[in-house]
Automatic annotation (TrEMBL):
Pfam families: Mem_trans (PF03547)
Entry-linked PANTHER family: AUXIN EFFLUX CARRIER FAMILY PROTEIN, TRANSPORTER AUXIN EFFLUX CARRIER EC FAMILY
Localization (cell): Membrane
Topology of the protein relative to the lipid bilayer: Multi-pass membrane protein
Protein name per the record: AEC family transporter
GO CC annotation, single: membrane
Length: 317
């Protein structure tokens, strides 16, 4: 549990540094978007390629990953249904809300949880791969369709097709999608990359997480989390689905499909991880549902601590 606390302290410390930078006027207003854009368009693609190009594609089919991925999709579906019933949102906001309900922090929190609670860092690597190769491109492709000039002209019968082609073209040029696909293909064909090429890529990738966390911290300045009128219903719904329902779904699916006790424990613990800060990076880049995503990341980061501790106590044996 000490390792988990270290992981949370690390994240909150960097978020705090971003908040203080805004508090003392080092970064003001929309200047944080420069940091966010550098993370989205430069550092994060470098990180994804660095992680994926040496990965093992076969881990995508492991039982634990199938369980956690299914739980994530079901959690996202529950948010979509709740959104349709109680707080109707546009496509981008609904997509981001569904993402916050199922997209877990498998890197900077998942790794210490895997090492100190699950006993092996390899447990989170497959989920990281699934989220980067499957989930992230799908999410970004949907967000691309919501850009203003990607909307079809209703008066034009070909508008829908042209809008879809524009969105598809943008998705194909999205640096995160491109880096993920290239990294996965390099791993698939086992193509060696010279260290002289990977050196700058690795260094840029190491800057991605601090950039995202600091941008998140800067966004907290000037607006308190969970303010009235900021969409708290969607935030509480997404947070409850993420830290309570998704672990329950993972436990139920793993038990129903006959996974061993330890595999069920691993799947449930991974599902209890909070929402990844990358989702805020996506929201800030596309300027959609930023407050909702920010507040959900903030809330789940704290709420997941007792949930993970409870899962370890009940199932860890």
């Amino acid at each position: 549990m000490w390792g988990v606390l270290q992981g949370f302290t690390l994240i909150l410390g960097i978020i705090g540094a971003g908040y203080l930078a805004a508090r003392f006027g080092i970064v003001e207003g929309d200047q944080r978007r420069v940091l966010n854009n550098m993370a989205f368009y430069v550092a994060t693609p470098a990180l994804l390629f660095s992680v994926l190009h040496t990965s093992d594609p076969s881990v995508l089919l492991s039982p634990v990953i199938l369980v956690t991925s299914t739980a994530a999709l079901l959690a996202a579906a529950v948010f979509i249904i709740a959104s349709r019933l109680w707080f109707k949102r546009d496509l981008a906001s609904t997509t981001l809300g569904a993402t916050t309900s199922g997209y877990v922090n498998s890197n900077n929190l998942g790794l210490p949880v895997a090492v100190y609670i699950l006993g092996d860092a390899a447990y989170v690597a497959p989920l990281l791969l699934v989220q980067l190769v499957v989930f992230a491109p799908a999410i970004l492709a949907i967000l691309e369709t919501t850009r203003g000039d990607a909307k079809p002209n209703r008066a034009d019968r070909g508008g829908v097709a042209r809008g879809g082609l524009v969105a598809l073209g943008r998705a194909a040029r999205n640096p995160i999608i491109v880096a993920s696909v290239l990294g996965f293909l390099v791993a698939l064909v086992q193509l060696p990359i010279p260290s002289i090429v990977m050196g700058p890529i690795d260094m840029l990738g190491q800057a991605a997480i601090p950039m995202v966390l600091m941008s998140f911290g800067i966004s907290l300045r000037g607006q308190r989390a969970l303010q009235p009128g900021s969409g708290r219903g969607a935030v509480f719904t997404a947070s409850g689905i993420k830290v309570l329902l998704m672990p329950l779904l993972a436990w139920s699916i793993g038990t129903a499909f006959g996974l061993g006790p330890h595999e069920v424990f691993v799947a449930t613990t991974i599902a209890a991880l909070p929402t990844a800060q990358n989702v805020y990076n996506y929201a800030a880049t596309y300027r959609r549902a930023e407050t909702m995503v920010r507040d959900t990341v903030f809330l789940t980061t704290f709420a997941s601590i007792p949930v993970i501790a409870g899962v370890a106590w009940l199932l860890g044996g």
